[in-house]
Amino acid sequence: MTEPCTVLVTGATGFIGSRLVPELAAAGHRVRAMTRRPEAYEGPGEPVAGDVSDPGTLAAPLEGVDVAVYLVHSLDDDDFERKDADAARAFGLAAAASGTRQIVYLGGLGKDDLSAHLRSRREVERLLGESGVPVTVLRAAIVVGAGGISWEMTRQLVKNLPAMVVPRWAATRTQPIALDDVVRYLAGVVGNEEAYDRAFEIGGPDQLSYVEMLQQAAEVISGSRVPILTVPVLTPRLSSYWISFVTNVDATTGRNLIDSMGTEVIVTDHAIRDLVPGEPITYREAVRRALADSSAG
Ligand SMILES: NC(=O)c1ccc[n+]([C@@H]2O[C@H](COP(=O)([O-])OP(=O)(O)OC[C@H]3O[C@@H](n4cnc5c(N)ncnc54)[C@H](OP(=O)(O)O)[C@@H]3O)[C@@H](O)[C@H]2O)c1
Prior knowledge:
The chain is an alpha/beta fold and 297 residues long. It is built from 11 helices and 13 strands. It has a domain at 6-141 and 177-202 and 266-276: Rossmann fold. The protein has a 7-stranded parallel beta sheet with strand order 3-2-1-4-5-6-11, sandwiched between helices. Strands 7-10 form a two-stranded parallel sheet. Strands 8-13 form a two-stranded parallel sheet. 44% of the residues are buried. NADP nicotinamide-adenine-dinucleotide phosphate (NAP) binds at residues 10-11, 13-17, 35-37, 50-53, 71-74, 106, 108, 121, 140, 142-143, 148-150.
C-alpha cells in the first residue's frame, strides 16, 4: 500500500482513464481528471483542462502533482507517430518542471519486428522520461472491456457475421488482459517507488490467437462457435476497409491496430506479479464482464 498523493490522470474521459479515476479516488488519492473539455466532465475527481498538443496548457494541471498517469494517444490520426512523440516530449518536460515524482504510462506489448503503432508506443515511453521524471511503463496487448476499441471490433465482428473470413494475421498469438486487471495494475504502481524507472509486461492468464479470441467471444456471446475460414490474401489495408464496413471502428484506427496483429504479443516477464499480487481473470470472464457492462451502459 502506497501513501495517498495527488494524481493527475490524463485521458480521464477515455476507455481506461474513466475506470482508473474512481479506483484511485477510492484508494484515497486526490485525483485530477485531465480532459480537453472539463466543462463536460461528469466523473469523480477534479476536472482540469489540458491539451498535450498545446504545451502551454500543461503547467496548470501538473502543478502540485505527485504522480501523472499518461493515457493519451492519437491512433485515429494518420500522423499519429509524430503527434504522439511531440505530445510525450512536451508532457515529460512539463512534468519535470512541476516537480512530478513519477509518470505512469500504459504502452504496448511486443518485442521484435514492431509495427509502426507499437514502435510509436515504445518511443513515447522513452520521450516521457527524457526530461528526467522516473517513468513506470505497463505494456499490454488487447485490453478487454466495454468501450475498448479492440473489444468493440471483436464484439461487432462476432455479432454481425454468421461466418468469418479471417486473414493470416488471425493466427498470431496474443495475451489479452481484462480492463479490471489493467486498472488494478495501474493503481498498484501509482506512487510505488519500487516501480520507478521500470517497464512491466502485463497480461491475462490465456495466450490465444486472434481466431481463438473470436471463437471464445462467440461462444460467450451467442453460445455457439462460428465457422471461420482463413484466407492468406487479405492485406492489412483491405482488412481495415472490411473492419470499417462490418463494425463502427474507423478505417484508420482499424488499419493501425491490424498492422500490429502480425506481431506476437506474449508476456515473458512476470515481475509485476511480485509488485502487485493477485490472480488476473481469464479471457472468457473478461468477455462476460465486458458484455454485462455493455448492456448496462
Ligand atoms: N485500449 C487498449 O486495448 C490499449 C492497449 C494497450 C495500451 N493502451 C494505451 O492506453 C492508453 C489509453 O487508451 P484508451 O483505449 O483508454 O484510449 P481512448 O478511450 O481512446 O481515450 C483517449 C483519451 O485521450 C484523451 N486525449 C486525446 N487527445 C488528447 C490531447 N491532445 N490532449 C489531452 N487529452 C487527449 C481523450 O480525452 P478528451 O477527449 O476528453 O480530451 C481521451 O480521454 C493509450 O495510451 C493507449 O495507447 C490501450
